[in-house]
Every structure is written in C-alpha cells, then in structure tokens.
Amino acid sequence: MTKRIERHFAGRTLSLEIGHMARLAAGSCLVQYGETAVLCAATVQDNATHLPFFPLTVEYREKSYAAGKIPGGFFKREGRPGEKEILAGRLTDRPLRPMFPDGFMHETQVACFIISADQENDADVLALMGASVALNMSRIPFNTPVASVRVGRIRDNWLLNPTFQQLEYSDTDIVVAGTEDAILMVEGGAIEVSEADMLEALKVAHRGIQELIGIQREFLAGHTVPDMSWTPVRPDEQLERRVQELANKRVAEALALADKIERHQAMAAVRDDVFNSLLEEDEGWREHGAQVDEVVRSIEKTTMRRTILEKAERADGRGLDQIRPITCEIGVLPRTHGSALFTRGQTQALAVSTLGTSSDEQRIDSIDSVEEVTKSFMLHYNFPPFATGEAKPYRGTGRREQGHGALAERAIQPLLPPYDEFPYTIRVVSDILESNGSSSMASVCGASLALMDAGVPLRAACAGVAMGLIKEGDQVAVLTDILGIEDALGDMDFKVAGTRKGITSIQMDIKIEGLTFEIMEEALGRANRGRLHILDVMDQTISQPRSELSRWAPRITTIQIHPEKIGEIIGPKGKTIRAIQDESGAKIEIDDAGLVKIAAVSMEASNRAREMIEAIVQEPEVGHIYEGPVKNTTTFGAFIEILPGTEGLCHISELTEGRVEKTEDVLKKGDITKVKLLAIDEKGRLRLSRKAAMAELGQGGAQGSAVPEPAGTGRG
C-alpha cells in the first residue's frame, strides 16, 4: 500500500513516500525535498556471516539523468562512485552503523540513488532520512529513527539545509546527524568560527533533527513489521570464562607498555599463548580461534577503559589532556615546491605542496551544478600499509583515505589567498609514514607547514587535534590527542582543526547514545587549548609563509588583452602559441575574457614570452619607432612589417636623406630596419619614415646601404 506525507521543513516542502518504488526490498523510501529526490532501499541476508565485523555497506550513487545530463567519458554511463558520492555515502554510513544491535552479523545493505537533482538542494542530508525510514519499516532490527541536517550561517543567522547558492555566502557548512536524544556525527568546515559558535550550531542542528524524527515517527505509525528472527553472534560462554582466567592479568601488563609496536607484539603473544593453553586442555577449541581473538579484544577494551576512568592513566603514560611530543621539519625534499615532515608521537605525515596553472585544475562531472565544476585546491591523503607496520596489498584509494583527505582539505581551504591574487592550482599530498592515531590532523599540520615552505601566502597557520571519550555510566574521561587504541576502543573520535582565531574543519563520530552538550563543550575547549599548543610548536619552525616562491615553482604573469586578439596569439591551429611556448620555454593559457597567463620557472622565460605576446597584440602608435623586416619593395617605396601582421609603406622619399633613384639602393626584401610611424589615415593605412627614425636615433644612413641594427626585437 502506498503512503505519502508532505510537511514543510526549513521553508521547503519535504515529502516521504513508501510502497510505490523498490517494493521487493526489505524496506524502501522515496524522499523529496524541493525537486531533489532520493530513493533509499534496505536489504538483508537471512543467514549470519562469520566475519569478525558487522557487514554493513552503504552505497550512495548519483544518476546523471537526475540533472538532465549524460555522463562524460568514453562509456557514457555511470561508473565507479566519485569523490562526492563516496563522502556522501560515509555521511550516511557513520551514524547508522552504531545503531544496529550488538551481535547482529547478517549482511545488510543500504542503497541511496539520487534520481532527481534540482541543483539547489543537496541530496546528501536526505539520504540518511530515507535510509532511516527504510530500515525502521523493515524486518531488519533497526528501531531508532535518525536524521541529518546541514547548518549554515549568513550574517549571524543560522540556516537549516541552506541551498547551494546560500552556502556561497555562509561562513559555516556542517552536516550533523543524530537521534532524538543525542548527536551521532558531525562533519564540515567553517571560516575560523569560535568554539562557542560551533556549539550553538550543533544545538540548532539537533533541534532540526528532532523535528525530522518527529515527521518520521508520524509517517511510520502502522507501517512497521516485526524484526526478523536472529541470534546474537557471541563467543561460547565456557570459552569466554576460561580465556578471561588466562588473559586478564597478561592483558593489563601488555597495555602498560607505552610503545605501540611493543604493546602490539605483547598482545599478539597473549593471544597465541592463551590459544595454545586452550588446545592443551581440549583439542576441540581449535576451531574457535576467532572467538578467542574476540574475547581477548574485549578484555583489552575493558582493561583500557577501566584504567583511564579509575586511574586517569593512558596506554602511553600521558595525562588525559597531554599532547605527545611534536617535531616539525620543512624543506626536507630538495626539488619539491614545498615540503614538511610533521611528527607527533608515533604518528608522522610527510606533506608536499605543488603549484601549477589553471590547466592543472580538477574538473568534476557534477549533477549539483549546471556548469562544469573545477577545483584549484586539492589535498590528497595516502595511508600505506607500512604506516602501521603491516604488509598488505596496495589497492586503489579507500573511502577512509578520501574522507581523511577531505577533512584536511576543508581545514586549509578557507585560509588560502583568493585565486585572482594568487592564480595557482595548489595540490598537497600527505603520505602517512607512521600511524598511531590522529593521522588526519597530522596531515592538516603538515599541509600548513608545506604550503608556508612553498611561499603560498596562507592567511594563518592551521593545526588540528583529535579528542576521545571514555564513558561508563556517570564516569566520563575526555582525552586529548588520542592514540589508535583509544580511537578503536573508546566512545568518540572528535577531530577539530583551525587557527588561533577559530575552527576551520570538524569531524565527530560517536559510538554511544547520551552524549551531552556539556561533554561536547568540554571537548571543544580542550581541543582549542591543544590546537594552540601545537601552533606554538609549529611557529618555532616557520611562523609565516616564505617571502618568495620555491625556485622550482612556476612564476605566473598575467596580461589582459582585448578578446579580439586571442585568435592572433593562438594562430592557425595553435601554430603561433606553440611557437611562443617552444621558443620561450614558458607555458601559456588564455581564457575567453582575454586574460593571458604565462607560467615559467625562470623569469627570463616569462619575460621572453611576455615580450612576444605584447608584440603580437600591440596596437601601432603614431610617433613610435619600430623595427621590422622589409616584406616587399616597389618603385615608390618599401612595405615594412612593424608588428606581426601589421605593415606600412615607407615612401621612397622617406628612405634616407637626399634623392633615391631606386628603392633597392637603400632597402631590399628581407632587410631589417627601423622606421617611425608618421600617421595612420582614415582607412587604417600606415605611413612610415626610415629617414625620420634615423634622425631621431642620431644615425645617418648612407645612400645605397642598409644601416646595421643591433640584435633583439624590442622597441627602439
């Protein structure tokens, strides 16, 4: 049976519809906001898997037809998901995952198809609502409605779900997801917004989330089915008791080791020894190796959390708000445009910045815009297996890598100079060389250092820190600069990046319900103190951008020409512009408005290209002296090219002092000579004088011989 509901939310019509599309899925919902529509479908397998993790996949796919477009490329059909689709899929996955019951191991899939895009409302915040309705109405054991909203701010006014156009004027762009009672996820960026303002944005967002969940509850009334029959996948109780007896003490000893590698090796030894002891007692436990690992991991989690809450002691011996030792190095690579090595404890990022021209911009096939979208700043994050001491296959860029890169990119983006003031395409690559927590925030710090090393005029230095949380009942511990183990076994991963003035990027994932705004306020305050400490350390290495660009970076010079002259610079089939580039060694780009960009590593190459272009577009000026070749001779004078494609007549009487019998007695075809432009008549014809040029230059040209000229093509 089809059911549809319409409500107004944030000034636009929001509609939910079930029972019309994708009816064979366990649950499906069509969400429409304005004229943007998302179809969400949830499915589940009947049998549980034996994987050591919950097999949930969330797919977010944009259909080109949604915006009346045909995909670019050779195949003309949608292929692998793009960056926007991957990031939007993560925005849906992250708040859903912790809401499934513990022990549920049935493979579950949520698919979100964007089937209409009005290029005004973003579909990413609609996908979570559609997924929530589809899951809650299905037999899948997911019984807590969730929703997400985007928050912006224009002139101190908070906006829920701002349009693409409104976001251009907003100093904040964050997506917040949650339940009726708590926030589950935060993702976004801002232009140096204070911690107090960010907390206010989260409160505004949560009120919007509560309104959307109210709409869901009204809509789902009478349209849910009983949960499927399932059994929690848990270790054998007898095995669990015996493993605890064998491992409790040794796990506590292993966790007391501050070094990650030593701790990891010690924990591996505990697992091996416990398993071997079990086999000595009963060979029947041989098939339960995975369960032994799970129980040891559970003991590790319980022990670590209890130690922090009861003793305020962390795995590496730090205090709860203490940051690991930091070292910063710049200029570590000799031929790159800018480089930095940022090390914080056992987390290390090698950040390298590269400057290019507009031809290096990333072009994006997007359904969110009528025109082609381009990016002139990119930050790419790479996480090789050796960063954690592991040997794994190298695959394509993973979702986590793309998400971390986007987080760091948002942190730096608002601090870059305007493109018209610094017309470079900028790419930063962060290669993680060591990882023990908070590698994305190390990438922010490394990128800031590398850009300053390259001479990019950043508005301010940027740093980031990751906060954690351990919460058991009323016992709460907020952790600054978390380790990998504190991220994996803790309750929160809260990353905050920014300058001394305010926040530029934020990301938060919560694994528990009931996180209060008081806890978030405390975490934001500690993050601010931690960020200022890191910036103090970074300032000791470099406190402001270098005054000059790297010697290996291209210098970009711009010239504004009349658009009618573009064709003359390009030439037939690009012949002229290629010749200029080949002779000068510079790279030349021209836009439709006549802005010419000359990019060259050396100023000599840049100046040479500029001179050649100016010679082409230069308009002849009466009274100026020009140098050019004789194109043709006649009985009444010589035609001389004073500018490319511009010729004038030097009458025989203007060749030299005295009477000249034949033009060839003074000039022959191919000779190079200087002439003065005397006049331009109403038909645009140029009247030249070699005699006047010689007199003005103080050179007497003898009859019957061409005057020797110096090398070069500059004006006389």
What's the gist of this structure?
The protein is an alpha+beta fold and 716 residues long.
Structure description:
Strand 1 and strand 2 form a beta hairpin. The chain has 15 helices and 29 strands. The protein has 716 residues and is of the alpha+beta class. The protein has an eight-stranded antiparallel sheet, with helices on both faces. A six-stranded mixed sheet has the order 1-2-3-4-6-5. Helix content is 31%, strand content 29%. The C terminus is likely disordered. It is elongated and about 120 Å long.
Q: What is the spatial order of strands in the main beta sheet?
A: 8-7-9-10-21-20-18-19
Helix share bin: 25-40%
Q: Tell the overall outline.
A: elongated
Largest sheet: 8 strands, antiparallel
Chain oligomer state: single chain
Strand content: 25-35%
Please report the total strand number as a whole number: 29
- Termini separation comes to 87 Å
| Whole-number mean pLDDT | 91
- Radius of gyration, in angstroms, nearest whole number: 34 Å
Question: pLDDT below 50 for ≥5 consecutive residues: which ranges?
Answer: 701-716
Question: Class by helix and strand content?
Answer: alpha+beta
Number of contiguous helices: 15
Identify the notable features of this structure and list them briefly.
eight-stranded antiparallel β-sheet; single chain; alpha+beta; 716 residues; six-stranded mixed β-sheet; disordered C terminus
